[in-house]
Amino acid sequence: MTVRRDFKEPAGCRSEQVIGRTELFTAAREQLGRGGSVLLHGPAGIGKSTVLRALAAEYGQEARTVLRCSPTESESHLPFLALADLLGLVLDEVSERLPAAQRTALEAALTGRGESTLQRDGLALRLAVLSALRALADAGPVLVVADDAQWLDPASAELLGFAARRLGETPVRMLWAVRTEGEEYDRHLRASPPDTLAIRLGPLSRAQMSVLLDRRGYTGLPRSTVRDIHRTSGGNALFALELSRALAENATAPRPGEPLPVPTSLRALVLNRLEMLSEEARRTLLVASAGARPTLALLHAAGRANAEAETAQAAALGLLATEPEGPAVRFAHPMISAALYAEAPAQERRAVHGALSTAASDPIERARHLALATNGTDPEVAARLAEAAALARDRGAPSVAAQLCLLAARHTPVDGDPSPDALRLQATEDAITAGELDLARDIAREVLSRTSVPAERVRAWIAVIETAGHAMSEVDAIFPQALADAGDDPRLLALVHYQLTWRAVLVKGDFDEAREEAAYAAELAARAGARYTELMALAFQAQIETLMGHPDAPATIKRALEEPQDPRVACHHNGAGYSRFRWLIMSDQLPEARAAVTGLLREVRRHGWVESEVHFLRGVAETELHSGQCGRALDLARESLRLARDTGIGEVASAVLTSLAEAAGGQVDRALTLAREAVEHAEEDGDQMYVSRALAALGHAELVAGDLPAAVRSLRRVREVEQGLGITDPARGRWHADLAEALVGTGELTEAQDLIDVTREQALRLDRDSVLAVLDRAEALLRAARGDREAAIAQLTAAQDRLGALGYGLEEARAAFVLARLRPDAGPTAYDEAARLFRRCRALPWLRQVEAAAAERTAAAVPPQAPAPGGPAGPAGLDGLDGLASMERQVAGLVMEGATNREIAARLFISVKTVEATLTRVYRKLGIRSRVDIVRLAAGRRAP
Predict the structure, then answer these.
(1) Which of 19, 136, 479, 553 has a CA 20 to 30 Å removed from the CA of 63?
(2) What is the share, in percent, of the chain residues with pLDDT greater than 70?
(3) Closest Cα to residue 453, out of 425, 433, 494, 479?
């Protein structure tokens, strides 16, 4: 098919519709932009066609002619068919420009008239295709697009390969997509130009797959279902969409622990080799598909006596990939296992689970198989499932515990003890712990629809409230119903009033009311002997008092830490341990804070408490950020954000912290984007506390980016929100000095002084030394703006020393940077100390600012001189820097930052000898002699 300049693709094929392929898409786009060709390859359904269409849509606008073909397997035996698709509609345009022999051979091949073959008209046909492409390119660029190029008929592939190898500088770009099921793609490059870029498309991540399913209309899927789809599909986009379609069309959801329903279309696709297996081998594979961790020993124990030979037969057909070491049996793709299980009759599946219920060595696995082998209620089976759920919980697998509790509820009689709904509520709480909030909410609402027991109803209401997270305004109407169901039972009332504490903060923004609700919840719980609820209420009361700067905060923390303790509270993200961490970090006790939160993170990971893990990852990242470990803080913050987005837990909070970490050690543009998203989402949720935190992150990023008016606007809003909330502790958000600095930069000196005075009074009352030091840094700028430079330098020097002593590495480096700016007569070396400190912190955005300031001062201090021939400041040297190879540019860039050879080796994960050899090449290419010349060259490039 041939398309002219007005070539267009459907909206769904635009580049923004390509999910999870940003880097690959960019590389392909740049390759095409340079006039090169691209070969996309990967397994069936991985998304090659989507990427190909998006690239073709983008570059089809630039090409005068787009030639397209999409061969199929059933037509691959027809000679010249692909060539006819590509050139058929342009034959009239180019035929008159071909020599007679070439024209005759090409027309015969494309139209089927005559008996043209490669054996008979080989050279003429080959030259005709080459000449036709050149003729089209004379009128403008040509883009050749071939999807499923593995089905190109051999004759067309041979002719295109001949032309591709001889096109040279002719403006013909080729864009292929080829299916490669574990095989090499090299043979497909023969039909492409020599400089073709081969790009392999791999599986999508779970988060990317969630976006894909949302965009394709499968919205609102529980995260646990998305997880199962991702696992079963192996990250394959086509498989995931087909599984989602089957789920949508299936009237009943699969039982807990069962694989997803597999549509017939996928069964045929992945099981086309199953017919070649013996019946006994197929039964052995069915047992393996039902097992969680199938091994040869397990297959033997389940009655498959010839497992070795039968799995070897399956491996030879590509159905299995046995591990090279150990006895594990692994399917070549998860879909094969799922399709095989789905294909088996229900009775046969139950028989397999029955065999595995005695063969499996793990008690949790045995219980799961027993449940799947049993129909109807069975108290004995239910009891074994409940025991297995408790064991999974103790092992730190709350997600497994939730599934086992649901199975136990299914097999428990209506009058059982515990009741089916009590088991479902336990599953709800396990799902919340595992971060599967959608599943928890669905189970809780199911319980509410069937139970009239007050205790069960209150627990279900609490679960619905907890799954709302920070969007508590969405469930505001639930509280009166929960209070009504609680009646006058102090144990149940304590649960509801503890949630009302959160409502007061998140919905009403009233810290005084929140403190009163927390204290009342603790009192009710103590009266009822509900120690868990009492400790949680006291811990949250302590957090509120800490934010308020309330003098009772230390005493409340002490009460929350008193014995007896409940082990479920000790590592909870709203427990006393975390309250103590917040107090430590706000009190400038960074080593103690790091030790506390690191210990908490270790424990929750051991227990599998995902929601707490998200919180504690942020806590560790925050501590590292304050300590000036910007690289580690950024890694941890990004990990927290990935986990938050994957689970739907604390996304705004993780985005806020990641924005701060990006502004400190990553990319300022990314920091701005994350902060803006956080502000938008917090405002949508009506969460004023996180509106203030998100605005503080936005204002900080704007300050780092140099947009002082925007920083002032954002941070003024923070001040207004926090005044409304009653937050008085300046260590909570640490935005005050940023606002004062931005105000000085915009010339609003009186407001800056007022802010500094008010904040200093609060910091003195609460003994916040680090806040006082950064306020001194901001006030030094204010004094310098008023002309008192000498006093400013003295104040700033003292502030830098105090920040260094307190362990705030990044703030210390910022003070050194301001100090260098206030000493204009000190020369270019004035910035050396700030650069050293920022390098130590890996604070790259700040380091770039220091380098720019130092280069400006160098340019102002050194008068222009005629460079020596070949010298580093000459035009040849400047051009040469752009001509360095990638590794050479990286090494030269680190030299410009002042890094030693050993530091460069560590940063780039190469040896010191490789650094030395690379520098030798850099010197030769730039015509210079030393590292000093590289720095001078950089200064020359930055000079205005």
Answers:
(1) 19
(2) 88
(3) 425
